[in-house]
Amino acid sequence: MSDIRQPLIDDFLEEMNKIINDNKNRIVKHAKKNPDELEDLPKSVENKIMSLYENLMDDLAEQLVEKANDELNQDNKSGGWEDALFTNTVLVGIYYSTQTMRDNFHKIHSAQVARQITNDAIKELPEDSTKKEIDTAIEDAHNEAVDNAVESSKSSIESLTVSEVGFSYYLLAKAETFTRGLNHYRWRTQGDSRVRPTHASKDGTIRKWGVGEEVGESFGCRCYSEFVTAEEVAEAGL
Ligand SMILES: [Zn+2]
Q: Residue ranges per domain, the chain?
């Protein structure tokens, strides 16, 4: 299975950036306008991003299930449980990722923080600043806060997505191996420069589940397992 995650994540981040940039003036105005009355990020922006993210996770789940079914159908085995497994783990991923994202946005849109950003911006200015200079400084400070929140959301989403989807695949592969009465798998890496050396050395080797570090088990690992037949296991002398 080649990595189907990255292209989807890239598309998502691009779309999200577009929504943020299209709405940035509105977000910044909202944040600095009247901090004491602020409650939330404009709901329409937050909702757009959330539904975009949920679509991303749905697409991932769908593609993963399709790939799993292809593999199962090759030897006329079919489950159904794999759908449930993916749906569950992916939903957990959606939940935690959207929570993280909301938290990041709320950090800059709570009245208290918005006021703090405004106060800090003013504090830095010389006493004889003009009204225009003060307004510009406040606007810049809020712009920067929005950028930082977007950046930190992006990296949270990316690492949570990679880790949740990877973990789903790990559970599926392991469960499926046992369902077939097998105990082994072939370790595969993504074959790029980000693969950690200790995993690169395992690429292509046949290994037993439950012995030592398992494929896809450690945080951020993008490696995956391939099914191996009983014959292949015997040929490898295992
Ligand atoms: Zn790895």
A: 5-181, 182-238
